[in-house]
Amino acid sequence: MASIHPTAIVSAGANLAPDVAVGAFSLIGSEVEIGAGTTVASHVVIGVRTRIGRRNRIFQFASVGEIPQDRKYGGEPTSTSIGDDNVIREFATIHAGTAQDRGTTTIGDRNLFLAYTHVAHDCLIGDDTTFSNNAQLAGHVVIGDYAVLGGFVGVHQFCRVGPHAMIAAGSIVLQDVPPFVMAAGYPARPRGINSEGLRRRGFAAAEIAAIRRAYKALYRAKLPLEEARDAIVAEASSSPGAKLMSDFLDAKGRGIIR
Q1: Active-site residue 121, yes or no?
Q2: Of residues 29, 139, 144, 241, which has the active-site annotation?
Q3: What span, in angstroms and rounded, lies between the C-alpha atoms of 223 and 181?
Q4: Active-site entry in 70, 84, 101, 122
């Protein structure tokens, strides 16, 4: 049976795994599912229609799955979905989706959300990302696997941040950041590739070199965007990283930082 503090309020419509722990004064709404091994600290609010997977750690004063901060929201039954092994620190806020988009805010596995981070409605977050203190996402943002957002980063609605990208502290992202790119500033501008992060994740030297060539074609060769894309496509035939960058450029977005 779940360990629920006597002062916590858990809706009869919530489904908690037998080993879930819920701390003092926390509030868990109806149609909430929480998987095995997850801990919910004191003073946490988990809104209705929220699914939380296994072995997550939700710290005190976090708010997960509450209704979106969106004027268009009219009480529709939207939801929030969170995977496994995530850490959600103090005062983090994660809001449900809207009917005008996917209807669900989705977070993958093994993500780290530090204090005061915010994930707005309809965001889609991959796996193994890091959100430093006060990193903030507007609605409809997509964050790829292993992306790192520094402290006080702000990301404009509908922007995409590609896998393995790194955004420096205090930056404001107004357009899409391609995979592997380091960005900084207001507005954020490209500053090279995240080569150190790639080495830490086991990327071979030859693959990092191919990604660096793709970056140079996109940002340093002074090519028009279409010609730069063609050069990256040519590189993609032998490089998974260049292929990932090529696919990112082909997808619809707000236009890339440049």
Answers
A1: yes
A2: 139
A3: 18
A4: 122
Look at the domain 198-250 and name its fold: Udp N-acetylglucosamine O-acyltransferase; Domain 2 (1.20.1180)
Domain spans in the chain, listed from the N-terminal domain onward? 3-140, 198-250
pTM of the model: 0.95
Fold of 3-140: UDP N-Acetylglucosamine Acyltransferase; domain 1 (2.160.10)
pLDDT tens profile 167-200? 999 999 999 999 999 999 999 999 999 999 999 9
CA distance 246 to 228: 10
160-180 core/surface letters (b: 16 or more CB in 10 A; e: else): bbbbbbbbbeebebebbbbbb
Number of H helices, E strands in the chain: 4, 28
